[in-house]
C-alpha cells in the first residue's frame, strides 16, 4: 500500500534537489495564493507619484525576470534603457518548457538568436504526442509541444545578451508598489534585507506572473513535478517512451472535486519531466496548494509510471487562466503594461504560456517602444500588448468546465468521458485541426464544427454543460462564439 508523504517530506524533497532558494520560491508562491484568492488591483506599498520634471532613471522597468526576460533584449534593441527587478535571480528558472519547433521562430525574428543556434537549445524531439483520458482511448497528435527546451540555457543566454545590450539587473529586489504620474511612473523596490527605494521609469512592465497583484484571472492551474530519472522505459502505458510526449493524461476520475491531470515530456537520455496539475477557480485554491499537490504527486506517481523515480530538479508554479466569461486582467493605471502569465492571454485550455509568450515578444516590444515614443499623458493603461488568439473565446468555457467537475461520486467519471469524446472527435477531424486547437490556431468556424461533432458523439453533453456552467455562463459563451463567427465574416466589429 502506498502512503502519502507528509508535507514535511514533500518540502524536504524540494529542498534536497532544488536547494533552499527553490523552496523559498515555492513557499512564496504558496503564500501569495492567499492574496490571489481575493481580487486586488493594487500593490500594498505605494510610492508617491512622480511629478513633472522628476529625473527619469530608465525608459522601462520590468518587474520579474522569469520567462518574460525574452522581451528584454528586444526592448534594448529599440534603444530603450531597461532595468529588470527580480525578487530572486533574474534568468534562473525552476521550470522546463515544451513547445513546437515553429513556435520558436520569434526568437530568430526578434534578433535574439540565430536560426542555427536554436537546435542547441533543444534537449529532445518526439515522434508525436498523445492525450489519453481514464477509461477512454489514446489520441496521438503531431507538431504539438514536441520539442523540449533547455530552459536554464535559454534564459541564462537571454540574460547574457540583455546585459551585453546595456540592460541593468537588480537581483533580489522585490517590486512592492508603483504609482504613475503624467510623465513617469515610480516603482518601489525592496532589496533583500535592505531599505526600499524608488526607480523612476517612463513605463512599467509587470511580468511577475501569478504572484503579481494584477493577476486577477478567474482560473488557476497549480502545477508540480520536475525532471525525474529512474522511470522504466518501454512501450507500455506505465512506461516512458523517449519518442512520445504525454500532453494530457488522466489515471483516475474526479477526486474531491478535482480532475488531476498528468503531463510527461522525455528530456535528456534517462530523464523525463513529469507534472501533475489540476484546473480550479482561483478562489478555490487554498494557500499551501502546491506543497499538498507535491505530496499527492509522490503518492500517485506509481499509478502513472513504474520505476524507481528520483527527483533531479523540482519544477512548479501557479499558471493563471482566463475563461473569457468575465473581465480579464488589465493594468490599473497609466504607464503600465502586463506581460506574460499575469495578463493570462495564453490558452485557458492548455495553459501553454511559453508558446503564447513567444508570439508576443516582437509585437510587444514594438508596442512598448511606440508607447514611449508617443509619451501618452492621458493616464490610460496600455492594453493589447500581449497577443490574444480569438480561439480562447471558445476554449475558455471548456476550461471552466474542467475546473468545476461534478462532485457526486456517481458522476466522478463524467468529465473523463466528456474529454474522451472531445479528443476522440478532434483526432477524427485530422491532425491539422487537432494540432491547431492545441497550438491556439484553430478558427472559430472549425471550433464550432468540433463542438457539434463532440455533441453528436456524446449527446448528454448539453445537459452536462448547462449543469456545470450554469445558464448565465452558457449564454455568455454562446454570445462570444457567435460574435467571433460574425467578426470573421466581417459582419460585426
Ligand atoms: C511547472 C510548469 C511547467 C510549465 N511548462 C510549460 C511548457 O512546457 N510549455 C509552455 O508553453 N508553458 C509552460 N508553462 C507555463 C510557462 O512557464 C509560463 O507561462 C511562463 O513562465 C510565464 O512567464 P512569466 O514571465 O509571465 O512568469 P514567470 O516565468 O513565472 O516569472 C515571474 C517572475 O517574477 C518574479 N517575481 C514575482 N513577484 C515579484 C516581485 N514582487 N518583484 C520582483 N519579481 C517578482 C518571480 O520570482 C519570477 O521569476 C509551465 C508552467 C509551470 C508552472
Structural notes for this entry:
The chain has 493 residues and is an alpha/beta fold. It has a domain at 392-488. 35% of the residues lie in helices and 22% in strands. It is built from 13 helices and 18 strands. It has helices spanning 7-36, 72-77, 105-109, 118-121, 151-164, 289-304, 353-374, 392-403, 414-429, 431-438, 444-457, 461-469, 471-488; strands at 58-63, 82-85, 97-99, 122-125, 128-132, 138-141, 147-149, 168-170, 173-180, 185-191, 197-206, 219-231, 244-249, 261-266, 271-277, 280-281, 307-321, 336-338. The strands form 3 sheets. Strands 5, 6, 12, 13, 14, 15, 16 and 17 form an 8-stranded mixed β-sheet that branches. Strands 1, 2, 8, 9, 10, 11 and 18 form a 7-stranded mixed β-sheet that branches. A hairpin with a 4-residue loop joins strand 9 and strand 10. Helix 9 crosses helix 11. It is globular and about 65 Å long. The N and C termini lie far apart (60 Å). The relative contact order is 0.15. The mean pLDDT is 91. The structure holds flavin-adenine dinucleotide.
Which molecules are bound besides the chains? Answer: flavin-adenine dinucleotide
Stretches where pLDDT falls below 50 for ≥5 residues?
Answer: none
Strand content: 15-25%
SS elements, strand count: 18
Note the gap between the termini: 60 Å
Please give the largest β-sheet: 8 strands, mixed
The total of helices stands at 13
> Radius of gyration from the CA trace?
22 Å
Q: Helix- and strand-based class?
A: alpha/beta
Helix content: 25-40%
Average pLDDT confidence is: 91
In one word, what is the shape?
Answer: globular
